[in-house]
């Protein structure tokens, strides 16, 4: 399944290591939140890239002390009607100021890409033949937004304010 | 009335285009029904028993003649010449073709309307008092805040895949005509101790399978904090609301399972943790801009009484009855609000033909300052009519057969479409409503009974709000046969209460005779004509009425 990063197909260099399984000596690995919380000293001490896979019920706040050392957080859509990962992503980006990759996995459908991009996802695993084309289309399907979100604070409300200020300055 | 600017316009146009693309993919088979379903639902498109149903948003129930005429056009061009006004102040069309819905969305965009989030697990159309801006008993006009909530909730990126649907209602008046206590979030505008107007926030009310009255989670939140506080509630719900069982997924179950205190604690904590980036604060100029659209129209200075109206009342007893039942007090002397009851005997409650829509549009344009509201009782309302014009309004309504004089009375029944249209339903609603209406065929008898709210639902999803009728009727299926359970004691106003099921269900043909006995008992027992059935039941208990209900000859 293609992995898109910022809308472009890239190779997936990450491997998820199940709880209880031994870590491979090199490469980029993701682990569960539980494993990360119990082994973070060892995990972060190694000279490698570490990511965490959150379950939909996990609280992203638990990662707050470690976020500047994480390179990837995987969030899940067990069904595409389950929108908990939207809140997790918004929390990571806006409350905890996480700058690394947020990746959507699970049932990712083209019709939710716009919501994902707005909520702070920059990577998606998506089962589409023309993944880049579909992403580009969804990213630009709407040109205006009422809500500030992880992608922009340039909302309709702010644009209106800017217009008023420009008019007042004239 | 709010008018779209270039930004609002762009969004609804882009939405129509997006849905056209999705429908094309569906019709070509590129999009499976399973994946199309949540998409069409967020555009108000349901697959019903016979056809697709299309639900159009009427934000806080406000229409203009231009909008109502466009709905009439849609009824004629894409449906069978009529539409159905709902208890959430929306309108539904029951016979539309999927392939034509994108065209209908374009036609709606032409008049600043849409079907965004009229269904699906998202924040639905925000509802309000149908007399907003006209009522003498309101603190201030709640509509600017309804419009602000509409914009904030439209395509919200975080809250578009909630555990379940989410309904918000706003009122600024006592009595509560917006049923805010039976909404996921009810907002009641009120002053704090310093005299500043803000909102009491009620959470977790709702009907359906497990009815609850909303709890006051915040006694007062300022206007400036309103959207941020709503975001805090929505985030707690989105993260923690149940998703394992759709019948336990509404916020009322979360509030109930956590307990009021713990739910409040979580929301307050979330609210307190919001940083500047997360707060949703509109510039005051933006609030002022939106509020300006709801400035009072230019009312004339008129005497409080109209000689012309009084003369017409004296001359025609049918007209006299209609004025007695269908007019509502207005805050400006010489004006009144007019209820157009869409409940003539023998018609599906809330149904309205395209000709009637055009007639109402003409009347509103000529006599009603171009303002029309949809009331949650499935009626239309002209909020601003001069008393002097009331006889002419009545004549025009009569010509369109829209002069039912039963607003707020026994035959002004709320009912869902029931088994005749809906694939969730267990039993017919419209036919049972019609049989109950027939009890009140004699206007003198109906007036003698007085204010009475009878609500009918065809299944436990409660679209006909049976829990909050003074008398509720709930259709159930027992081994393939329709039965109707009767509830007593519900109400949707500021004293909101959930009705109680009285006992075994009745057969279809038993419902009307049984209710006739209950109403006779009520008339024997009430202390005065102004004591509502719900109040008599509170005073005496439900036992005498239950006895009458089952006392078949």
Features:
heterodimer; A: 170 residues; eight-stranded mixed beta sheet; globular; B: 553 residues; six-stranded mixed beta sheet; 21 strands
What features would you describe in this structure?
The complex is a heterodimer of chains A (170) and B (553). Chain A has 170 residues and is an alpha/beta fold. Helix content of chain A is 32%, strand content 19%. Chain A has one domain (3-142): Aldolase class I (TIM Barrel). Chain A contains 5 helices and 8 strands. Chain B is α+β, with helices and mostly antiparallel strands. In chain B, helix 5 packs across helix 9 (284-292) and helix 6 packs across helix 8 (260-273). The chains are: A alpha/beta (170), B alpha+beta (553). Chain A binds chain B through residues 80-84, 86-88, 90, 94-95, 109, 111-112, 114-115, 118-119, 141-149, 153, 156-161, 164, and chain B through 5, 7-8, 10-11, 14-15, 18, 22, 35, 38-39, 121, 151-152, 154-162, 235, 238-239, 243, 273-275, 277-278, 280, 282-283, 285-286, 289.
Number of DSSP E strands of chain A:
8
What is the averaged pLDDT score of chain B?
Answer: 95
Morphology of chain B: globular
User: Helix amount of chain A, in percent?
Assistant: 25-40%
* CATH H-level superfamily of chain A: Aldolase class I
* Greatest interface (CB-CB under 8 A), with counts per chain: A-B, 35 and 39 residues
CATH topology name of chain A: TIM Barrel
Write the CATH architecture name of chain A.
Alpha-Beta Barrel
Q: Could you say which structural class the secondary elements and strand pairing of chain A correspond to?
A: alpha/beta
Separation of the first and last Cα atoms of chain A = 54 Å
First-last Cα distance of chain B: 55 Å
Portion in helices of chain B: 25-40%
Question: For the residues shown, what is the average pLDDT of chain A?
Answer: 94
Oligomer: heterodimer
- The number of distinct helices of chain B, counting runs of at least 4 residues, comes to 18
Q: Tell me the overall shape of chain A.
A: globular
